[in-house]
Amino acid sequence: MKVLRCLTLLAGCATAALPASAQISLTPPATLAPPPAASKPAPLRPTPKQEPKVAAPAKAPAAAKPPAAVKKPATSPAAKPAEQAAAPGDPNLDLVYGAYQRGQYKTALELATRRAQENNDPKAMTMLGELYANAMGVKRDYAKAAEWYQRAAERGDREGMFALAMLRLSDRGKTGNREEGAKWLASSAKLGNPKAAYNLALLYLDGQTFPQDLKRAAELLRVAADAGNPEAQYALATFYKEGTGVEKNVDKAVRLLQAASLADNVDAEVEYAIALYNGTGTPKNEAAAVALLRKASKQNSPIAQNRLARVLIGRNDPADRLEGLKWHIVAKTAGKGDLFLDEALANATPEDRTKAQDAARKWLGSPK
Questions:
Q1: How far is it, in rounded angstroms, from Cα 270 to Cα 299?
Q2: Would you say residue 42 has pLDDT above 60?
Q3: CATH number of 35-212: 3.40.50.261, 3.90.480.10, 1.10.10.10, 1.25.40.10?
Q4: Whole-angstrom Cα distance, residue 286 to residue 70?
Q5: Distance separating alpha carbons of residues 238 and 259, to the nearest angstrom
Q6: What residues does each domain of the chain span?
Q7: Of 21, 127, 285, 321, which has the fewest CB atoms closer than 10 Å, so is most exposed?
Q8: Is 368 exposed, middle or buried (0-12, 13-18, 19+ CB in 10 A)?
Q9: How many CB atoms lie within 10 A of CB 315?
């Protein structure tokens, strides 16, 4: 059963050929998916707010998948040794996490090992799991990563619980155990971890690990959305638009889309732009809508490129029409075709077609 169908802020799907003056609508959203990158463990003493980045949603939500290996940040040549990173006695001193942030993984490994052994520190254990899972300062070893995550989780660290859950659910390094993974995901969510709440919601939507429960999924998405998770905000917005697991409420949907778009969620930017353009659930603001569509287009959203092309080609300004033709060509290259825009391109002057094609090739990085 598809929970998220063709979500438009107006009637009709984006596949229909509409005149340029018509209200713009949206294709089905991208699939709900969990974070693609392994979350950084929380600092060992001070714990600043850290929100996960999660992959763009689509047609139907999928069960949680593991984060991919964290990309190693470049080490600053001017970075001080971890032991000198802060003044002695500084209450915010966090040598392990400081070394990790600067890419000094061997130092982070040594310091975290010491703290785990001498202080039985669960956050140091989570850090060690992260280092082993992502081959940072040490050879990748999923078994050791799972062992350290397990020790951290058993001592109540919600980040350790989340990392262990994702490892078990993904079966990376043959460490899989979906039942155990789901248990730790629920425990982490219960302690207020928004990433865990979001991924647990996906399991309730998927209906394989747990019986499908749309109401429970909506509750979990709300927890993550209230904590500022933009992917949860976007997903919950689709629930409110459709009345899935909650009472249908377009105003709440648009507010959530606005919040997620402010956090640079591309899918939310597109849908919020459409709401602004049409004045659906929010005052009409065409200028702001076009600005958001441009932003999402530059982030390689074919839907945004297609919607922007329709808006710009419908204007009287030659420069706007030319830009619209460019975005149509770019979107079509990504598989987002449009018969109406094909006709507009065919009816353009040979000079404008050439300019639009050159501009599209330049954007795509293709040779002439």
A1: 11
A2: no
A3: 1.25.40.10
A4: 39
A5: 13
A6: 35-212
A7: 21
A8: exposed
A9: 14
From CA 210, how far away is CA 224, in angstroms rounded?
Answer: 19
Contacts of 6 (CB under 8 A, 6+ apart): 13, 27, 28
Residue pLDDT, tens place only, 243-262:
999 999 999 999 999 999 99
Query: How far apart are alpha carbons 82 and 289 in whole angstroms?
Result: 46
**Could you read off the pLDDT of 259-303 as tens digits, one per residue?**
999 999 999 999 999 999 999 999 999 999 999 999 999 999 999
Burial class (CB in 10 A: 0-12, 13-18, 19+), 78: exposed
H-assigned helices in the chain? 95-101, 105-119, 122-133, 142-154, 158-170, 178-190, 194-206, 214-226, 230-242, 250-262, 266-278, 286-298, 302-313, 318-333, 339-347, 350-364
**31 phi and psi angles, rounded to 5 deg:** -70, 140
Residues in contact with 130: Cβ distance below 8 Å, sequence separation at least 6, in sequence order: 38, 40, 41, 70, 100, 136, 145, 163
Angstrom distance (rounded) from CA 61 to CA 204:
10
Give the pLDDT confidence of 112-167 residue by residue, as tens digits.
Answer: 999 999 999 999 999 999 999 999 999 999 999 999 999 999 999 999 999 999 99
Residue 44 CB-half CA count within 13 A: 27
Q: Running DSSP on this structure, what letter comes out for residue 212?
A: -
Residue 49 has a CB neighbour count (10 Å cut-off) of 8
Residue-wise DSSP of 251-288: HHHHHHHHHHHHTT-HHHHHHHHHHHHHTSSS---HHH
Spatial separation of the C-alpha atoms in residues 20 and 186, rounded to whole Å:
48
Question: Encoding tokens for residue 235?
Answer: 């997903």
Q: Which residue has the tokens 């438009």?
A: 8
- What span, in angstroms and rounded, lies between the C-alpha atoms of 201 and 353? 47
Place of tokens 């990392």: 163
